[in-house]
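> run fold Non-symbiotic hemoglobin
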Amino acid sequence: MSGVDSMISSVLDLLQNKFIIKGQNEVFSVSEIVSTIEQLRGQSAFEGVQTPEKLKKNMDCEQGLVEPVKVVLKQREVIKDNIVKTIDVDFAYVVPFLPSLEKILNCPEVLYCIKNPLPVKPGVFSSSLDSYFYQSHPIVKDDPHTLGIGLYADGVDLTDSASSKSGVHPVTFIYFVLFNIHPKLRSSVRAIFLLACVKSSFLKNHGYAKILDDFIKILNKLSSKEGIRIRIGNEEVVFHGIFICFCGDNPASENVGGFKESHFAAKPCRQCFVSKED
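> ok
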């Protein structure tokens, strides 16, 4: 359901409740119906979200917003008004992985996919969960519902559409995916979840270590025998998870592996030690 459909549905529900209050067996006059509609006419469809503060409160309460956290990569001391202050020079914004994962796992459709994995056909690979790596993993053998987690990164250039300049403010977005979600449902932007965003130049200078620190810590706990207890509804459920793969274009894949992004590096291949001369 789109945002507009949801908004219209809310208005209709409100109108319905107005009539139900009158009584199910009551007969309404035209004037009463018009009066009820007029009472709604003055109400804004965006009631409660008119300001950034109200919008944030609504997202916190109604939609379960997981706020991103600022991760400082580099600081510098400056003198302002004869006072030495420390300012953040390079930084990234990271969405805490565990709270985000908890919100996703509380989605009934996602939970159904995890509890009901698609059957694996020998020799047929239709999903990352069909791989030998996943199927033979000791954690998966102990828990067939183990979460299969992957990362995806790509850079975008935030430019002014009215200008011819480009490459001024490139930003890299890092996402995570749950391969347990059935392929036909996973092929949607709604099944790709934001993990972090950082200016590409900061990422090149400092690497992924600090940015993925929270993600790696939680992933290590998920891949342990104890797993992690996550609240699903009114109960706590133990989940296990393993990292399956990192997806990205050639520069992103080389960057996350600690290699040079350039194709003109002395050893341009991240999978072997072939030299440029060879």
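The radius of gyration is 25 Å.
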